[in-house]
Amino acid sequence: MNNMIDKVLKNLVYLLYPRNICAYKDKDEYFISDEYKRLAKLIADFDNENRVGVGKTFIEKFENDKTLKNFQDLSLFNIEDRCMTLHVTVIEGRQLYTISLFLSIILPYYVVDVRKNKIELYFSESEITNLENENTETRNIKELVSEISTVIETEFMYKKFPNELVNYVIEDISFQDSEFGYFTMYNAFFNNVIIEDES
Is 195 within the bounds of a domain? Predict the structure, then answer.
């Protein structure tokens, strides 16, 4: 990891998460820390003042796109997520995929995550065939992700969160039910989702 980025981001993490206090075991001490209070206020302020407007603005940028106009805002600030969470489901090659766009409310960074779902849990074989026949999308998943990234970067000036930082563990930080040794840079700026390596 780049030492300068490492230092800057770690310093920001330490402003929002108390060091060496386990959120799981030492809840009373954790909740009264200045760092946690700062983080909780940041999340609450965004949820109360900006969430609807910002989420609507992001989704509106895709309103003329036949597939991406179906983005849904599934942000969970009530459980202290540190990002907006937008999902869209697409079908490709008889497979169902969820494309998730995570937009940090702490820094102008984003992550796009693609997950394959078990389509057979949701649809019968005939329904899958109908969905495929009705699908007019000509772009593949990679092209859709590229389109999302282009809009987020050019219209909103967000940057893609560096891949090498996603699973970088911050050893002396804990949050909610995450004990020491599991909390990552991604977790610090986004949510508690585990993002798989793209490499």
Answer: no
pTM metric for this prediction: 0.89
Question: Would you say 105 and 84 are in contact if contact means Cβ atoms under 8 Å apart?
Answer: yes
In a domain, 197, yes or no: no
The pLDDT-based confidence of 199 (bands split at 50, 70, 90) is very low
3-state secondary structure of 135: coil
Give tens-digit pLDDT for 88-137.
Answer: 988 888 788 899 999 999 999 999 999 987 766 566 777 777 777 777 77
Locate 165 and state its tokens. Answer: 């930082």
Whether residue 138 is contained in a domain is answered as: yes
Say how far apart CA 106 and CA 188 lie, in whole Å. Answer: 9
Domain range for 105: 3-189
Asked if residue 194 belongs to a domain, the reply is no
